[in-house]
Amino acid sequence: MDTAAAEESMRTPSSTTRTVGRPEVEDFLITEAALLDEWKLGSWLELFVPGASMQVPTTDQWELGPDAAGYFVADDWDLIRARVKRLQSRKAHAENPHSRTVRLVGNVRVLDQDGGVLKVAANFVIHRFRDGHAFQYAGRYEHTLRVEQNELRFLLRRAILTNEAMTPGARLSFIV
Length: 176
Description:
Layout: H1 3-11, H2 22-37, H3 41-45, E1 48-57, E2 71-75, H4 77-87, E3 100-114, E4 117-130, E5 133-147, E6 152-161
Parallel strand pairs: 1-6
Antiparallel strand pairs: 1-2, 3-4, 4-5, 5-6
């Protein structure tokens, strides 16, 4: 999909106005966690609306926007797709072989629903194992989802780390 088509997809509201409850959001986030833990990145990418974005603010200035350079990750749709392609190739040396992860998602909340757009929040803990070391990442998600007829999809995927600092070796080469 070209950039113009992706932007149109973002502007086009969902044709459904069905009400979404916490259990459906929780199932969506647990499914996403399983896809990432199982390194099914192609299927994970299908959870996004073309034109969506993904953000991971830095741990010290998470309140800044992505334009203020306070982000570890500020990917538009093209960069999300490129990230998945690179992680699936042998060119991603930091993730070849890929990290083993276990993600726990909890305290899921539906914050607001305005037609086909849903604001949700949840907490997460990710245990990452790589090169004989274990790392723990904790934080919260602040996502914007599009409500479609039979599914939810990301418009904005935002992971805010609670860690005060990253320990040596605690790279973010995997998807938080």
